[in-house]
Design a protein that fits this description.
Length: about 300
């Protein structure tokens, strides 16, 4: 495989990632020229014009595959690779979004951004990339392109999916107050967030937030609750038959300690039972709260 000998590649290999802070006459015009080159690249790609694409690279340009790490060097090899790509899939389209264009010197620039490749009915593939541009005979050309390997984000959905029935908007209007709860997933489904508001008449009496997640160290579902009155608690979840049992330890706003067991009993897609038992505050046993039925809004 041909070795990289361009001045720009050598600069990268010795760690010249510190972009220049100098400003020279025509720098803004250079930036606009690179932006134009980016548009030309996307246009040529979507027109399936392999020759035009290769012409946008320097003669010794290098593309590094994000999947295999293989390098394709030189315009002829790049054109052949593009031709093979277009022959293999006639539906391939490209979109790019530039995050930054930074100048290493008046003749070397680095573009960073995100690329989205679309192929027919398959889901789009999104990758981050960096492109090194060099000025040759007054024209900005691609000297090197590197795509970063996508990393699949970790998700605890498998451990939490049995609680997916909680997602949505719920209301309990029994007992003279109205308690509304909204449950939704966080990104990557690592946590469920439940927000609640208790209203008496037209007055909001209490609000709060609960996070439900997977404790990978202890191999169990845990939750944390924070109330607007200053109290907070944490609980452990366990499935018992057709219901979920949550054992909770709390610190009240005035500093007292408490504990309780909450029982959640799914009834159907639009309702579940909620009950609180074994209530203790500072060693004093408190009355149980009988089951109430909470319905989907």
């Amino acid at each position: 495989m041909k070795q990289i000998t361009s001045a720009c590649a050598i600069a990268i290999l010795i760690g010249l990632s510190f972009t220049s802070t100098a400003v020279w006459a025509g720098q803004e015009e250079d930036k606009q020229a690179i932006q134009k080159a980016i548009v030309e690249y996307v246009t040529a790609f979507n027109a399936r014009d392999a020759k035009a694409l290769a012409a946008l690279w320097s003669p010794e340009g290098v593309y590094t595959s994000r999947n295999s790490g293989e390098q394709i060097t030189g315009r002829e090899a790049l054109q052949a690779d593009f031709e093979g790509l277009f022959e293999a899939d006639s539906t391939t389209k490209l979109e790019v979004s530039t995050d930054s264009i930074e100048f290493v010197s008046p003749n070397v620039a680095i573009e960073r951004g995100m690329a989205v490749v679309m192929r027919g009915e398959t889901p789009p593939v999104e990758t981050s990339y960096s492109v090194v541009y060099v000025r040759r005979d007054g024209k900005w050309l691609i000297d090197r392109t590197t795509e970063e390997q996508d990393v699949e984000p970790l998700s605890n959905y498998e451990q939490l999916k049995e609680l997916e029935w909680m997602v949505g908007d719920w209301v309990d209007a029994e007992g003279g107050s109205v308690i509304k709860t909204t449950c939704q997933w966080t990104r990557h489904k690592n946590f469920m967030v439940r927000t609640f508001t208790a209203t008496v008449g037209e007055r909001v009496d209490l609000t709060g937030m609960q996070f439900v997640g997977w404790d990978a160290a202890n191999k169990q579902i845990r939750s944390w609750v924070f109330d607007s009155d200053g109290s907070f608690s944490q609980g452990t979840w366990e499935r018992r038959g057709d219901r979920w049992v949550v054992n909770t330890m709390a610190t009240l706003a005035d500093g007292r300690r408490g504990s309780a067991t909450t029982v959640l009993r799914p009834i159907d897609d639009d309702s579940f039972g909620w009950q609180r038992i074994n209530r203790v505050v500072d060693g004093e046993v408190m009355p149980n709260i009988d089951e109430v039925v909470i319905v989907r809004e």
